[in-house]
Amino acid sequence: MAAYEYDEGGVMATYFLITFLALILVPFTLSSFGGAPDKITHGCDCDACVEQRKRTKKLEGGSLAYLLATGWAIFALAVYRASKMKGTSSVYDPFEILGIASSASEKEIKSHFKKLSRMYHPDKVKETAELTIEAIQDRFVSITKAYKSLTDETIRRNWLEWNNPDGPQTTSMGIALPPWIVESKNNVWVLGVYGLLFGGALPLLVGRWWFGNRQKTKDGINARSAAAFFKSITEEATTEEVVSALGKAYEWELPTPKKNAQALDAELDELDKTISQKVGQQYAEVKRLAKDANGDLHESRRRALILIYAHLTRLPIQSPALQTEQRQVILQTPLLLNALLNVSTARNWLVPTLSVMRLNSYLAQALPLNAPPRVRLTQLPGVSKADIDALTPRPREMTEVLSALQEKGDACAGQVQKAIQKWGRVEIVDAVFKVIGERIITPSSIIFLVVKLRLVPPGTSTEKKDLSVDETKRVAAANEKKDEEFLLTKGDAEDVPKGKTTGESERDYRTYKIQFQGPPSTGVFTWKVFVVSDTYVAEEANRDITLKIEDAVVDGEPSEDEISEPDEDSLAGQMAAMRGGQVKKKGEESEEESGTDDDEEDSDSSSDSDSD
């Protein structure tokens, strides 16, 4: 039988804690210090971008580092405590107690026992302050039991069957609970704590999790934000309407300002005035569209719009609290814009879809909406609008800016060159519709839109060397084979060899695919493919393509040209004439028959002459 006792020393609890912490800390520590690849593997190499990636990585990994350090500290304390605990062997070994080898003979065991008896008999050992009479007696009893376990048949059987020379024993199982929890005088308090935990805290925690999830959509935004998107976006929505819809969402996405935040209102008001002066009517229109049905602009919407436009116009913010709030707002925009994009694409609206995609790049580069070409050049690191205006002649392309800075010997020319070398200017190499294993596209078939894209940084030449006819055919066949293999894969983008960029791989472009089901009827459908960068402003490309749906041709079935017209005097001919179709005249039939007969006669005569 098993006897349960409370482990007042906490031995089992300590070992449980060590095991639990090891299972969590080891994999997380290896993942954080194992050189995991960065999210941006081939980004810009200028100093500003490199520093920004370091700051982002530090912010993302800072909390994890603190948690790991705390966890390992607790782990070390638990190991230290376990090392100080006295443990007992669970396997009874008489050879270990006697201090002899397990291969010793019975004669050697007896001889060794006599030697130990002379040394440790209670009459031979004197009691000291460290060695009490009870300890002396227990040691001798243990030696005697070990000897009998090896020589006495009954005791040896008990040892082998029950792991104890005294036979079966009660099993003691410790429970890592302090004794005061089970003491009768503390029953009321213990029950009260259990009631608060399981009757109050646990339902509250589950309720907050449940109702919190119900308020979120699958895109991770508040359900009321999604409802505001559906109501605000129209088929011809302008950029101002898209930004105002984004601002509306912050009523539920951004926490209500605290009372102490009123001290920051003065700086917010100053930013509001500066933005109105720089942006003008567009900013006023966005705020007007962001108002609710009563004509009021919610405080959270107002603060979010001010902080977003301060970011777009690159206005400095002095207050650390406002800087933190602006960071929260800007980091929330990708999630909201993705949800807004899903709303727009679900309705098949092109104009708002493009506006949302372009807004991502304006936020990434911190440029005013619909910035003119001259302002777009300020995407280059260390280059401001004043620097562009100071250059003569005034540059229109990034390569011209680089050349002008190099001629002046400007210190930022090297950073600009690094940025241009990794610039994400896209070029559509090809865009076609394909069906696996088919040359034509039939109704209701599974169609793949295959788009091949190439990154061409400014100033890069895309001209290729001329190939021979055989080499061109070989390359075309190899590319066709790779395209067919790519269509059979599950991914939406073609894999690039590890450690290489798109331009360094075997093909200087990358292939992407979108799968959909074709229309149920035949016809010609005109499409337009848009590729819009979410990082670089005004870097986009488009191409018109045609989808032709044809009926399938069955092997052995005669084509329309092979089917002869019906006779004029037949029932089919009369029906065809009533429908306005073509029929075969009676005279034409006789001519065809005579022509056929003549051919037969010619063939007969030729065969006769051959036989002669």
Shape: extended
**Helices and strands: which structural class?**
mainly alpha
In what range is the share of β-strand residues? 5-15%
Helix proportion: 40-55%
Low-confidence stretches: 35-41, 589-597, 603-612
Q: Averaged pLDDT, please?
A: 81
Total of DSSP H or I helical runs spanning 4+ residues: 21
Q: Let me know the largest β-sheet.
A: 3 strands, antiparallel
Radius of gyration: 43 Å
> What is the string of SSEs from the N terminus onward?
EHHHHHHEHHHHHHHHHHHHEEHEEEHH
Counting DSSP E segments of at least 2 residues, the number of strands comes to 7
Distance between the termini: 118 Å
Strand line-up across the major sheet? 3-4-5
Subcellular location: Endoplasmic reticulum membrane
Membrane topology: Multi-pass membrane protein
Region (Disordered): 553-612
InterPro entries: C2_domain_sf (IPR035892), DnaJ_domain (IPR001623), Ig_E-set (IPR014756), J_dom_sf (IPR036869), Sec63-dom (IPR004179)
Detailed description of the structure:
With 612 residues, the protein is mostly helical. Helices cover 53% and strands 9% of the residues. It has helices at residues 11-33, 47-84, 94-98, 106-120, 133-151, 153-162, 187-214, 223-232, 239-253, 265-279, 281-289, 299-312, 320-346, 350-365, 373-376, 385-390, 398-408, 413-421, 469-487, 571-578, 586-611; strands spanning 2-6, 171-175, 426-434, 446-455, 510-517, 523-532, 540-549. The strands form 3 sheets. The protein has a 3-stranded antiparallel sheet with strand order 3-4-5, covered by helices on one side. Strand 6 (523-532) and strand 7 (540-549) form a beta hairpin. Helix 10 (265-279) crosses helix 12. The protein is extended, with a radius of gyration of 43 Å. The protein starts with a strand and ends with a helix. The model is unreliable at 35-41, 589-597 and 603-612 (pLDDT under 50).
